[in-house]
Write a structure and sequence with these properties.
7 helices; single chain; 5-stranded parallel beta sheet; alpha/beta
Length: 204
């Protein structure tokens, strides 16, 4: 078993976010990340509704475990979502296990973008994970000219550090799948998992 995806897109499913991601954000990330990687980028994103009794948690766990990097789209709703916090916490735990995001090792596995909210809405950990501020470009009905500004922001601010993180990802560890499966299952059931989300991810 090995990596299947370069990037796992983590976001809060709400209202028009899926439409904006599909119409505007994802095509541009695929475009510029593929250019920066020198090959087609493999990006996992899911826009299905959660279904009780489905294999959804296991599918998401497998996809996250087999992704090199997490791309979280931060908003106040994101950091207050147990599901999103689980995805973020799992990749943050991987960074810690691999010795990433330290004074001596500046490699990271989480490269985020902020879609909504102010600096004061997010803890220091979140702000340090943010590579791009995209809140000015999140209207699903925005005109073509505004879409060009979004493209420039992704090209210059988000894609380069995202590509670097993909290229610097550690060797795949099969143990990540079991850890993700347990955490996702507990998040799906609404109960706390033994794999705790690292402290400081959400502002008090």
């Amino acid at each position: 078993m090995d990596y299947e995806w370069d990037v796992f897109l983590s976001y809060k499913r709400h209202a028009e976010w899926p439409a904006w991601i599909m119409k505007h954000f994802l095509p541009l990330v695929e475009q510029w990340l593929s250019e920066d990687l020198g090959e087609p980028a493999r990006i996992y994103w899911d826009h299905r509704d959660l279904e009780v009794g489905s294999d959804y948690p296991l599918e998401m766990a497998d996809a996250l475990a087999r992704s090199r990097v997490l791309l979280p789209l931060f908003s106040k709703m994101y950091v207050r979502s147990p599901w999103c916090r689980t995805e973020l916490g799992l990749m943050r735990a991987r960074e810690t296990t691999c010795g990433y995001r330290t004074v001596d090792n500046l490699r990271v596995l989480i490269v985020g973008a902020r879609l909504h909210g102010e600096d004061s809405d997010f803890a220091d950990d979140i702000r340090r994970m943010q590579a791009a501020l995209l809140s000015a470009y999140t209207n699903p009905r925005m005109a073509y000219e505004k879409s060009g500004d979004l493209s420039d922001a992704i090209k210059t601010l988000l894609s380069p550090p995202l590509a670097k993180a993909v290229e610097n990802a550690p060797p795949f560890d099969a143990g990540w799948k079991a850890m993700a499966a347990e955490a996702m299952d507990h998040a799906f059931e609404g109960t706390p998992a033994r794999q705790a989300v690292p402290p400081g991810l959400v502002a008090a």
